[in-house]
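Hey, can you fold this one?
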Amino acid sequence: MPKKTLFILISLLLISPALVPVFSIFTADETRVCGIDNTNYPSTREAEKSGIEVSYNFPCEFPKSEDSLFERTEDFEFTGMLLDFFNDTDKTQLFIRDNFDKQEYLVLSTTSSNKYLPGDQIKISGQINKNTRVIMASTINNLSAKDLIVFDCFLKDIDKVNSTIDCRESDTTHTFNFKDDARLVAGLKNPASLEDLQINDEMRVRIDEFGNIKIGITKKRGNTDFFVNNINILKGVIREINTSENYLILDSDDSLIKLNINPDTLLVQKYFGKLSFSILNIGDDLYIVAKKVNNDFSAITIKNNSIWK
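Sure. Predicted structure:
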């Protein structure tokens, strides 16, 4: 072998270990993440070691315009317990806790149903917004109402001797049987008995094919509505920021509301990326998912439509 060729081969063997790190840079998967401080970190672990929360799981991007930006969605399916709900003639809003990871999701649908009761097991298929984690449902399967008939009716008579109730739905009065496996909720009393019901209670009753009550819940008694929806979708503009007590005063539908921020509140930018409370400014335009507590609201999700990069 010529000496020149041998020299080249030996040289390549000697320097090849030094080429490995360089080569790996071009072949390794991207692990960099964008911190909430808009700084790139080598990995989620390195960001957390620096005490920085990850804003999104890819390098920071600083686009010059919003033209090509969007909120990413993907197929999503889960089963969970119904915590709160609202439905009218053309839409349904469900707040469900996932049985697997205990994450709570707001689920929206353009269909209506009168079958829901708090505590129901619901299976959801749909599209999840990866930014806000709000789900638009394509199918909703109420596993707790399977093979049961649902009535919304007014209680007209209670027969404690024969353990039956008469409940009027429109112009028809139905007689339902109360057996040992029936579950009743009367107002704030759970479980309840026939003695806890009152004539003219507005009820939602699930029965089997034989007219036996499986579950009956008082929806309304007099002026007291027990089916109040506490989960709200709001839009508002920040008018005041209290950093010491972590709350905002918002102008929402021409009225001022107080919005409390807690450690579990998801605070995100318009298209993707988490924010810190300190980034908010007076005049910012917000999209909010919140739980109403007395006269105030506790934020579940805040999307700041005024911040997109």
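Confidence is low (pLDDT under 50) at residues 16-27. Let me know if you want another pass with a different chain boundary.
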